[in-house]
Design brief:
Elements lengths: L2 E8 L8 E3 L1 E5 L3 E2 L21 E5 L17 E4 L10 E4 L2 E8 L5 H6 L5 H4 L6 E7 L1 E4 L3 E3 L6
Parallel strand pairs: 5-6
Antiparallel strand pairs: 1-2, 1-6, 1-11, 3-4, 3-10, 5-9, 7-8, 7-11, 8-9
Length: 153
Amino acid sequence: MNGYVVGIYTSPKAGAPMEFKRDVEAIAGVGLKGDRYANAQGSYNKGKPGKRQVTLINHCFFKDTSFKFDECRRNIITKDVELMWLIGREFKIGEAVFLGVKYCDPCQRPSKLAGKVVNFQRSFYDRGGLVADVVTGGLIKSGSAIIPPKKDY
């Protein structure tokens, strides 16, 4: 079963508010057009182009938290896909192909930037999402299918 994109968010630089996008161009080896990570202006890749290209998180992780999608600092909000299964595997979103790189550890930065006392790191413990690289560029839209590789077991 394929999942799909619930929301797309980018931010032009570290600390700037996340902006909702109906669609975005994924650029191979870079990230999402106009996003801080693609511009090497993110907190975790400042001056290091190509590092930490795109982040994804499952929408169900927000249940029972006070955080909104744009406050989590992740680029792509997903539904009906097991993100951790994508680590080390290629998968498709819209026209683009990604490689799951690693688990995205939650930190305190989202709480600080959102001005919340609630601890993001604690609220999203073991639910931080996925860091992925763009293998093949292409357009991603809200509602785009997330197509995982065929399971080989």
